[in-house]
Amino acid sequence: MKTYLTIALQAVEQAAKICQQVQAQLVEEDSLTKKDRSPVTVADFASQAIICKRLKEAFPEIDIVGEEDAQSLRQDENREVLNKIGQFLPDWSVDQILDSIDLGNGEPGALFWTLDPIDGTKGFLRKDQYAIALALLKDGQPVLGVLGCPNLPFNGQADRGTLMYAIKGEGAFTLPLGGGEAKQVHVSDNDPEDVVRFLESVEAGHANHSLQGRLMAHFGDRAKAVRFDSQVKYAVLARADADVYLRLPNSEKPDYREKIWDHAAGALIVQEAGGTVTDMFGKPLEFNHGKKLMANRGLVVTNGKLHQKIIELLNRG
Ligand SMILES: Nc1ncnc2c1ncn2[C@@H]1O[C@H](COP(=O)(O)O)[C@@H](O)[C@H]1OP(=O)(O)O
Ligand SMILES: [Mg+2]
């Protein structure tokens, strides 16, 4: 597993550098809009190209299930975006860029990678938080997870981003982006009688803030809301800077199913830091139903001590 970890960390580091460069110079034309109207940027594509290329060089036989594909970039109308990606990958030919992005068109199987090259694209566009999320799944369970969080200060140092990783059964660790010593992380110790820090999406459309608000009311003044974009929320909880992360289905999209690349890495990291991850009914996440968590609804992530209480409150009818 150590070889997988080394390559995964290198790939995420490399992608994070490009994402930081793009974010620093971001203009509106650097993004295009997908069919579901969600945005995708130059950096999403560059990140996926870099990570897929690195993984395939090292592990040619392992499929990669990435969030993006190059179909839209192959259309003339998006030539500008493709050219811009080329500026950030100066040694790459156009075909190399397109083909590397499409290395992420693999299918979930017994052993595969899943990649969100930029999770929280809306946060990225706001020059706020985003994550690069990569996980290795074996027999339907994440066994290795890496989260690159370029705008999440490492140890309070604003100029250093955060990397987090976990190997199943071996704990969760953090180190600064750019290199440094890895330190083990543990979730908080807070119980239902303490202050309870709730993580939620910045984007109101991505979760049911009002249902979450009603649940928080149970804890009165002790409930605090903390908003972050992306899987950065998992990293914040794993290092004990928050206690609960809820993703409750939004009434406008009651049938929404979570995507595997949005949760595989983060869920493993929180579990290895001592926390608990289930859906809103307390059922463990099942990663063996294709690209979506078809057998689960919503998400409840806690430090473990709060889990039962939250599930109880959510399901008391
Ligand atoms: N209705 C929805 N319910 C839950 N998650 C959603 C919904 N719409 C989009 N998302 C996902 O929320 C994630 C970002 O979450 P956050 O706001 O917490 O950072 C994205 O991966 C996005 O998926 P997608 O990338 O497919 O649009
Ligand atoms: Mg995502």
Count of discrete domains: 2
Number of helices: 9
Number of strands: 14
Give start-end ranges of low-pLDDT stretches.
none
Mean pLDDT, all residues: 95
β-strand percent reads: 15-25%
Cofactors, ions, other ligands: adenosine-2'-5'-diphosphate, magnesium ion
First-to-last CA distance: 44 Å
Main sheet summary: 7 strands, mixed
Features:
Inositol_monophosphatase-like; globular; 5-stranded mixed sheet; 9 helices; 317 residues; EC 3.1.3.7; single chain; binds magnesium ion; 7-stranded mixed sheet; binds adenosine-2'-5'-diphosphate; Fructose-1,6-Bisphosphatase, Chain A, domain 1; metal-binding; 2 domains; D-Maltodextrin-Binding Protein, domain 2; Inositol_monoP_metal-BS; 14 strands; 3'(2'),5'-bisphosphate nucleotidase; 31% helix; alpha+beta
Characterization of this structure:
With 317 residues, the chain is an alpha+beta fold. The protein has 2 domains: 2-185, Fructose-1,6-Bisphosphatase, subunit A, domain 1 (Fructose-1,6-Bisphosphatase, Chain A, domain 1), CATH 3.30.540.10; 196-314, 3-Layer(aba) Sandwich (D-Maltodextrin-Binding Protein, domain 2). 31% of the residues lie in helices and 22% in strands. The chain is built from 9 helices and 14 strands. The protein has helices spanning 2-24, 42-58, 79-88, 94-102, 121-125, 209-217, 232-238, 264-272, 307-314; strands at 31-33, 39-41, 63-66, 111-119, 131-138, 141-149, 162-167, 172-176, 183-185, 196-200, 223-227, 244-247, 276-278, 299-302. The protein has a 7-stranded mixed beta sheet with strand order 3-4-5-6-7-8-9, sandwiched between helices. A 5-stranded mixed beta sheet has the order 11-10-12-14-13, with helices on both faces. Strand 10 (196-200), helix 6 and strand 11 form a beta-alpha-beta unit. Helix 2 crosses helix 3. The mean pLDDT is 95. The structure holds adenosine-2'-5'-diphosphate and magnesium ion. The site of adenosine-2'-5'-diphosphate (A2P) has 16 residues, from loops. Magnesium ion (MG) binds next to strand 4.
